[in-house]
Amino acid sequence: MAEGTVHVVAKFVAKPGQEAALKTAVTALIAPTQKDPGYIAYDLYESTQRPGEFVLVEEWATKELLAAHLDTPHLNGFKAAAPDLLAVPLSVKLFAEMPGF
């Protein structure tokens, strides 16, 4: 991966009946994450076709600061609750910006 900012795309799919709880849990991550070192953007989207399916698009200054974010109390709390909320394991993919676009 190229040096510089890191973009993350995370997909969350709620268990049946857990849609509202997952939305609350994911939304609760926004405010504390905005205070984490290296935070640039943290945008949450909900599917217009499937309630309870969310995509989080993040941007971090460096891979190291992203790694530190992943070990914060708010993320660890979410990870502990995730098995009760998620229908499938969380999907997380990292991307680097392509120069010239």
TrEMBL record:
<dbReference type="InterPro" id="IPR050744">
    <property type="entry name" value="AI-2_Isomerase_LsrG"/>
</dbReference>
<dbReference type="GO" id="GO:0004497">
    <property type="term" value="F:monooxygenase activity"/>
</dbReference>
<feature type="domain" description="ABM">
    <location>
        <begin position="6"/>
        <end position="94"/>
    </location>
</feature>
<keyword id="KW-0503">Monooxygenase</keyword>
<protein>
    <submittedName>
        <fullName>Antibiotic biosynthesis monooxygenase</fullName>
    </submittedName>
</protein>
<keyword id="KW-0560">Oxidoreductase</keyword>
<dbReference type="InterPro" id="IPR007138">
    <property type="entry name" value="ABM_dom"/>
</dbReference>
<dbReference type="Pfam" id="PF03992">
    <property type="entry name" value="ABM"/>
</dbReference>
<dbReference type="InterPro" id="IPR011008">
    <property type="entry name" value="Dimeric_a/b-barrel"/>
</dbReference>
